[in-house]
From TrEMBL:
Protein name: ABC transporter ATP-binding protein
CDD domains: ABC_Iron-Siderophores_B12_Hemin (cd03214)
Record PROSITE patterns: ABC_TRANSPORTER_1, ABC_TRANSPORTER_2
Designated gene of the protein: fhuC
Species name: Brevibacillus agri
Domain ABC transporter: 4-240
Domain of life: Bacteria
Amino acid sequence: MERLYTQKLDIGYGELSIVKDLNISIPSGKITALVGANGSGKSTILKTLARIMKPSGGQVFLDGKSIHQQSTKEVAKQLAILPQNPTAPDGLTVSELVTYGRFPHQKGFGSLTKEDKEIVQWAISMTGMVDFYDRPVDQLSGGQRQRAWIAMALAQGTDILFLDEPTTFLDMAHQLEVLKLLQKLNEEENRTIVMVVHDLNHATRYAQHMVAISRGTVMAEGTPAEVMTPEMLRKVFNIEADILTDPRTGVPLCLPYELSHAVENKQPASSLVQPAAQAVQEEERKLVGTR
């Protein structure tokens, strides 16, 4: 059985149900992409898997134990999460940011150990940020900032890394920069990576496992070739598309050409999750600050 999985997971805000009876397993040592239309519940699922949100029913299991019955510090030693559009205090340098990743391993208010400092240096080097060691994070480009935050997550020393739309608001070059870094971490460090991805072609190219979600329900799950089908695109995204094969990588490519009329009067689910957005963001800030 995989290290991270759910059993009959229900997620909601008060009486409003977003996810019902969810059963998924996250493959260890692979990149998993959660895809779906805006408001489909994919970010909600990611946050619950990472223990930022508490389910209204069912369980998330990490190494056989309920993740929501473990302490924040204990979970932070096993998984790291990079929320969407994280912000750092003005003037905070790259090296200072990355040291935050060692907080779960420290006792009380102790200073960094020799091992902590070595891991921080390794994380900065691994993400190609050595030249920006003393540069304030708010003076970096978008791609550089994302790499700095990923370095902080790496410094936690966890095998599992969650990312919520890590390429949002980045130009194409910086998107590829971040995605190739994640690919490197998976291939060379055997990191299990779970990420919410907006671009379907990025998902098929960089993930080995995909989960397509609509209204909090898994509509398809498996390899990119198994998930990326015209039927899935109609059900999940309400589009018609041609599926081609990338001549360089052999993975499927999605070329949408019109809206599908198979699903009429489809009400956006984004209106369902909006009431709790501020509460979830506050919980993210608490959890990242703890780590």
